[in-house]
TrEMBL record:
<dbReference type="InterPro" id="IPR013382">
    <property type="entry name" value="CRISPR-assoc_prot_Cse2"/>
</dbReference>
<protein>
    <submittedName>
        <fullName>CRISPR system Cascade subunit CasB</fullName>
    </submittedName>
</protein>
<dbReference type="Pfam" id="PF09485">
    <property type="entry name" value="CRISPR_Cse2"/>
</dbReference>
<dbReference type="InterPro" id="IPR038287">
    <property type="entry name" value="Cse2_sf"/>
</dbReference>
Length: 180
């Protein structure tokens, strides 16, 4: 992961430890278009690089990830899709797969809404995810200038992660409170 993404996640972790009001503002920001909730600006705008276009993909990606982290501040080295596949395997719920497929079909305008629902499921299942990787993926997904085939590579990787986690044999599964 990039140093940029790692620094931003470290910033969010610091807010989680020291500033609950900041996390509340970031959670509330998910109810607005990414970057349209002024109380969240002090926590995200310092990471919007001057050389990046203000309307480019990195700014909304930062806001979406910040809001999602504030909703479920559990960072781990596991992709969102892998964690969701693990959750589906535990719960054996077709509804989780349906939400995942809807997420994969999301466009830039409604991606944050689908992600919020998926992260809420992960929070309920007490499963963490790699927010730095998510930030990098959203930078690609939300970039209108990127080749659509490159954007689809993110979706394809998420699908592979999800279905691999879903099909993982017991010996390869991450320890959970029930099987640790």
């Amino acid at each position: 992961m990039s140093d940029y993404a790692q620094r931003f996640i470290a910033h969010l972790e610091s807010l989680h430890e020291h500033d609950r009001a900041a996390l509340a503002a970031l959670r509330r920001s998910l109810g607005f278009a990414p970057g349209a909730y002024p109380p969240a600006y002090p926590y995200v705008e310092p990471f919007v690089a001057a050389e990046r276009h203000a309307q480019g993909a990195s700014r909304p990606a930062l806001y979406v990830v910040a809001g999602l982290y504030a909703t479920h501040p559990r960072q781990a080295g596991r992709s969102l899709a892998s964690s969701l596949g693990e959750l589906m395997r535990r719960r054996d719920s077709a509804g989780i797969e349906q939400r995942f497929i809807a997420l994969l079909g999301a466009d830039a305008e409604n991606l944050a809404t689908y992600l919020r629902r998926v992260v809420s499921l992960l929070a309920a299942g007490d499963l963490a995810l790699d927010y730095a990787a998510l930030l990098e993926d959203l930078n690609r997904w939300l970039d209108p200038r990127i080749d659509p085939e490159r954007r689809d590579l993110v979706r394809q990787r998420w699908a592979r992660d999800f279905y691999r986690a879903l099909a993982a044999p017991a010996s390869e599964r991450a320890p959970t409170p029930g099987n640790a």
